[in-house]
Amino acid sequence: MSFKSPAEVTNSACSVAVAKCSLKFYQMLLLGILAGAYIGFGGFLYTVVTQDLSKYAGMGLSKLLGGASFTVGLMLVVIAGGELFTGNCLIPIGIMKGCVTPGAVAKNWIFVYFSNLIGSILLAYLIFYSGLASELVGANALKIASNKMALAFGPALFRGILCNWLVVLAVWMSMAAEDVASKIFSIFFPIMAFVASGFEHSIANMYFMTIGILLRHNEALIAQAGLTDQALNVLSLKGFMNNIIPVTLGNIVGGVLFVAVFYYLAYKDKLSD
């Protein structure tokens, strides 16, 4: 076959877990900042593509094309190189095999998560000061951020689970691919599916919500977005935390349980020593 079998990918995932847990602090910091920014680039492109598309193509096609545009974020992470918290929800497979410790995984998650946050915020500020988040794009950014921060805990949690099930599957399938073109296709469809479906990604939300908070005092954009006072009030640090906590928890469950645990249990008898 021109790609790795699921059993072979399971072995590769264990090797990747060892490599990721062996990264030095500065490597996790730099690669985590890059990954946060890369996902932010996907988020900004999504905002640009969907700013008025539903008016011409309908809501369904708008979501589909928006999801397709967002895939560039994970492509940059996987192919150019980056450390992404949601993708790293796969590495607990190394704990189950016994090749990495829970402490090493926790250290990677903590360093990478907050490095992703730095990269996401950095990208949001760069977009804000570039002036590109104006008119319809800025209004769309405000609506996206407000909708995310208004989500109740339960829906945010379950959308986070569904999201990272697909995101980690995209990473899993990209590990099966033997060439760059195959990796791109492996990433494209699961990521397009999660975005078009309306699932919630913690690192993407770091960008979306930060740019929304930065734009919340722009009266012209608020009027263009048609936000009510209630929708506007959620654009705050409290709204940020109300979303990011359940979505992050959901992302962990989705990636660890439905990919790492399930595939380890399915193929543990075929793992190399």
UniProtKB/TrEMBL annotation:
What topology in the membrane does the UniProt record assign? Answer: Multi-pass membrane protein
InterPro entries per record:
Aquaporin-like, For/NO2_transpt, For/NO2_transpt_CS
PROSITE patterns, A to Z? FORMATE_NITRITE_TP_1 (PS01005)
- Name the source's superkingdom: Bacteria
Pfam families under this entry? Form_Nir_trans (PF01226)
Cellular localization per UniProt: Membrane
The transmembrane segments are 29-49, 69-96, 108-129, 149-172, 184-208, 244-266
**Record keywords, A-Z:** Membrane, Transmembrane, Transmembrane helix
Q: Which GO terms describe its cellular component?
A: plasma membrane
Instruction: Show the Gene3D superfamilies listed in the entry.
Output: Glycerol uptake facilitator protein
A GO molecular function held by the record: formate transmembrane transporter activity
Please name the PANTHER family in this protein's record.
FORMATE TRANSPORTER-RELATED, FORMATE_NITRATE FAMILY TRANSPORTER (EUROFUNG)
* Family recorded in the similarity comment: Belongs to the FNT transporter (TC 1.A.16) family.
Name used for this protein in its record: Formate/nitrite transporter
Q: Which organism is it from?
A: Acetomicrobium mobile (strain ATCC BAA-54 / DSM 13181 / JCM 12221 / NGA)
Source taxonomy: Bacteria, Thermotogati, Synergistota, Synergistia, Synergistales
